[in-house]
Amino acid sequence: MGSTLSLFGCSSVGPDFKQPDPPAVTNYTTQKLPVQTATALGNFGGGQHFVVGKDVPVDWWKNFGSTKLNALIGQALRASPTLDAAQATLSQAQQTYAAQMGSSQYPQVNAKLNAQHQKFNPSLFGQSGGSKIFDLYNAGVTVSYNFDLFGGNRRALESFSAQADYQRYQLEGARLTLAANITTTAMSQAQFAAQIKATVVILAAQKKQLNITRQRFELGAVPRSDEFALLTQVEQTRASIPLLRKNLEQANNLLAVLVGQLPGAAQIPKFTLADFNLPTDLPLVIPSELVRQRPDIQASEALLHVANAQYGVAMSTAYPQINLSSNLNSQALVASSLFGAGSMVWSLVGQVAQPLFNAGLKAGVKSAEAGFNAATANYRQTVLQALRNVADVLRALDNDAQILQAQAAADAAAQASLNLIQQQYLLGGVNYLQLLTAQQQAQQTQINLIAAQVQRLTDTAALYQAMGGGWVAETKKEAGLLPQHTKLAAQSAEHKGFVRHLLNQN
Q1: What angle do CA 131, 132, 136 make, to 5 degrees?
Q2: What DSSP element (H or E) covers 493?
């Protein structure tokens, strides 16, 4: 089982949870990251620096400088059904923990009170006289308590506490995912709108070129195959516009749902690339810190804690259970003397139950141990996936910056070529078909440039998400590093207050 399953001590059997060791690596990729990514001309072509140890801001999306985006995410934090469901699930887990604490850590006290109106016939017992009617009053208090001598109840309570931790990190992960999805979808909306505009210009130029070619064919200057080739090109371009419009409409519908609105009645802003800035200084959290602030890793660690505590619960079933109960009762024929000294009856009972033979106990312990081993493997896999996610994003930032550099150069060359051909056309050096062809090439490179620019923006948003979004680090700073059982009751209020803080900033 390893060092994680060390004994808790004489008061609590079973394993004492130990936080897994962080990864013993300092880099995410085998290749060294550049000091600065490639630069390019035009929008979003600036170099980006990786700043090791830089804190991830909790409202990281504000680094893109879009007031529209800030307002949309603020609206989502207030109205998202996903966050509402995650918050309710967290509250349920916290109340379950509180209920378990109340029933296992404190004595149970129950009171009873009853009155009976009875008729008694003395002749049934060989006595003379008529029937007698009397009232009988009973009152009592029962106190019971389970002495958790070997810690089974405490381990069960620890499990519920860890489950509440898990739901808390699920909430944090939902919030981070929501903000990232809104950010990237808004950027995609801007991309599709810009590409539609450029494609419409290309289609217009192609139609003009097709009309000229048809006129030339009628004059016998070109073969019919030239007309068909251009017609094929026109229809292919025409077919690409509905696809881009479909993507744009789907992006609008997704944004509506993410902010908690009905797609048919949503008021979604129209984003353009001019609404965004490219952050230049990017936070780079080292792997040993990443595992402490990514919500998915923290949630997986909480599940590991749950399995660890349940293993202790299973082990405790083999030890004696000690229960103490006491009763204080009063019985009287007259209510006024119910609590008199002569009517009081009390009892004190202690009970020890020790399993002598139960063939299933050993299997139950092994089952819990297997569950712990599975949770350990799942945690390791979560860490590996998170490190791979960061590595992919870091390489994407570097490579996509180089792609933008090349696309920007191609766009500049296409624009220069178009300017030259326009001048030649005015001087009669080239024909109109050559001018239309140059215009189409320039617009096509513009479409490719737009895609490269948006890719850099979404890569940056993906890095903020991969770094944990700043949420876990911020909440830990506010809550302190207190054990779960001392801060659990305040977590729900802490979350609501923290969200209010975000909304005020928006």
Answers
A1: 145
A2: helix 484-505
Residue 45: other Cβ atoms inside 10 A? 19
Burial class (CB in 10 A: 0-12, 13-18, 19+), 48: buried
Q: Which two tokens stand for residue 70?
A: 């800030």
pLDDT digit string, tens, across residues 416-462: 999 999 999 888 888 888 999 999 999 999 999 999 999 999 999 99
CB 37 within 8 A of CB 401: yes
Q: Where are the alpha helices (DSSP H) in 321-431?
A: 359-426
* C-alpha–C-alpha distance, residues 228 and 239, integer Å: 16
The domain locations on the chain are 26-309+320-505
Q: For residue 254, what is the enclosing H or E element?
A: helix 224-258
Q: Which residues pair with 51 in a beta bridge?
A: 283
Structure tokens at 46: 């600036």
Considering only 146-160, 457-471, 482-496, which range has the smallest mean pLDDT? 482-496
Answer yes or no: are the C-beta atoms of 110 and 139 closer than 8 Å.
no
State the CATH class of domain 26-309+320-505.
Answer: mainly alpha
Alpha carbon 472 to chain centroid distance? 11
List the single range of 52-61, 96-105, 153-162, 218-227 with lowest mean pLDDT. 96-105
Cα distance between the two ends of the chain: 48
Give this prediction's pTM. Answer: 0.82
Q: How many residues does the chain have?
A: 506
Which residues have CB under 8 Å from 485's CB, separation 6+? Answer: 101, 157, 161
pLDDT in tens, 126-154: 555 555 665 555 666 776 666 666 767 78
* CA dihedral (259, 260, 262, 263) positive or negative: positive
Q: Which long-range contacts (CB under 8 A, 24 or more apart) does 325-330 make?
A: 325/142, 325/143, 325/144, 325/145, 325/349, 325/351, 326/142, 326/143, 326/144, 327/140, 327/141, 327/142, 327/143, 328/140, 328/141, 329/138, 329/139, 329/140, 329/141, 330/137, 330/138, 330/139, 330/140
Point out which residues pair with 475 in neighbouring strands. none
- The DSSP symbol for 36 reads B
